[in-house]
Amino acid sequence: MSSHREAPEIAKDPVADSSDLYAFVTPDRPETVTLIANYVPLQLPSGGPNFFEFGDDVRYEIHIDNDGDGRPDVTYRFEFTTEITNPNSFLYNTGPIDSLDSENWNRRQFYSLTRIVRGKEERLARKLPCPPCNVGPLSTPTYNELVRQATFKLSTGERVFAGQRADGFFVDLGAIFDLGTLRPFQQLHVAGKKIFQEAGEPVNATDRLNVHSLALQVPLERVRRRADRYHWQEPASVIGVWTSASRRQVRVLGDRVAADTNAGPFTQVSRLGNPLFNEVIVPMAQKDLWNTLPPSEDKRFAQFVERPELAALLPVLYPDVFPNLDKLNRSKKARTDLVAILLTGIPEGLIDGFTNSTGDLQADMLRLNTAIPPARRPNRFGVLGGDLAGFPNGRRVTDDVVTIALRAIAGLTVPLVDRKFQPDEAAGAVTPGLSAADVTAPFLRNFPFLGTPYDGFNNPSAQS
């Protein structure tokens, strides 16, 4: 999974767990960049009466680095407050919610949005309302209208939304974490060949589950540093993006007469740049540490990118399928292709007409060359599929990041830095077998792009 329950401690704190991050030049507004950060993963739609929400005690931030130092030059900060309108009811709503100020809605959430540029804070909005969770056809009969009411265009040029959406990430968790099984190739697995006679059908484990999204659409001039002219070769065209969640260092539990209190400075407990980085690159013992650090400290983890554990496991799990990768692993050569993709950006000269390098500093950020226009016909394999507007050049909601990452780790991208290396045939075919078509809720053509959240009444698990 991209970053759902990716570290031991943050798995116990889903309200602060960043699950997916997207950054792309907006197809219908190419003068803007769309940034989406998801939190509170793996939501069961029927999870009432206490439906999911953002944390009032969590500071959520989306960071942009535009000079390659792995530190934020522009930050958008979201802070939430929750209000109960009827303290004598246990219900989330007592009738249909047909507007954001409906008297039937008992638990409402609001947020402020602050823009921080090199330490200087500018409050862009106060007390913007979130929409409710999608409870069901009786409680939220016109849900898309509520989303429209909760989408705001600010006087400073940003468009913003914060609330529940359908999880658009597609991954076969049940197979992958069962000793690295890929169902389309399960009969070739070292243990699976004793059980399976043929390929299996993949299962999207995150389908029909919801998340909470922070979605921003920002004019490009608000995120890029100044340049005379922006083009794909201009360093100022490239930005690095990551998201983080922070909590205060001290929490004191209340007693019968005193409420819980939070005190002290905020400390980071979660972050996310490239999908799957903490998930499958960082070893278990260091995952929680990684979540507390800024990207500028990621040289500490470069060794795990240069020699990823998964690359060593593939030839073991799938005997005789990856002989060239096995030979490369045994040579102990550093995977400089993965270092470029994940930690520095891809320098000019490796791929015709493309770079998203931010310099020599090693930092896990989602790098986006904002001078590369949106693709008219997007390819789900992004740059690997010849589509320079897709992952790892930013990330769009339909990009097949699991397959892209697997193929890169399997050796498909090694020829970028070593033209003598011949990838195994399987490296260009390895996949969990899923695509955006395996997400039940249709993606939207415009902001906020992720689909309408699944409602609790129609969720199949509630009917089983």
Fold and architecture overview:
The structure is a single chain. With 464 residues, this protein is an alpha+beta fold. It has one domain (10-171, 206-462). The protein has nine helices and twelve strands. The strands form two sheets. Strands 3, 4, 5, 6, 10, 11 and 12 form a seven-stranded antiparallel beta sheet that branches. The protein has a five-stranded antiparallel beta sheet with strand order 1-2-9-8-7, with helices on one face. β10 and β11 (261-272) form a beta hairpin. The protein is globular and about 70 Å long. The model has no long low-confidence stretch (mean pLDDT 96).
Report how far the terminal alpha carbons are from each other.
25 Å
Structural class: alpha+beta
Q: What is the general shape?
A: globular
Strand content: 15-25%
Helix count? 9
Largest sheet, in brief, is: 7 strands, antiparallel
Whole-number average pLDDT?
96
Number of domains: 1
What is the N-to-C succession of helices and strands?
EEEEEEHEEHEEEHHHHHHEH
The unreliable regions are none
Helix content: 10-25%
What does the radius of gyration come to? 22 Å
Number of extended strands: 12
